[in-house]
Amino acid sequence: MVASTKPRFQNFLKERGYKWTSEREALWEEIVKLEGHFEAEELSHLLWKKGKRISKATLYRTLPLLVKAGLLKEVIHGEKHRHYEHTHDEAHHDHLICLKCGQVIEFQDVPLKKAEERVCRRIHFRPERILVEIFGYCQRCQ
Quick one: pLDDT at residue 62? Predict the structure, then answer.
């Protein structure tokens, strides 16, 4: 997420009657720095280590707002918790998730993407997003 998204998120909140608070700003500032996939608990721990006390309620209410604003994507739904990633990497990719160590491996496969599109066309289905998650064991955990 790039710095120019701050005004976009502030406007998104204002239009929906939410306030831009110091807690939300601290959250946004930390999320901007993150790379790859992250979980709410990881973000909470990172903020805590830096001495930034953000309530879990604010954290768990703000992440879905960032998703609705189009600044984060919710990915990896098969576990008990959600993972997020930035939307700035617009290249479509899917995920391999290790059931033992939790490693997430991103991959792109053009024939798979074409097959997904073909299925949607065939049954006249308009996808909002396509997400493929394959759960198994990475090379190290097999």
Answer: 93
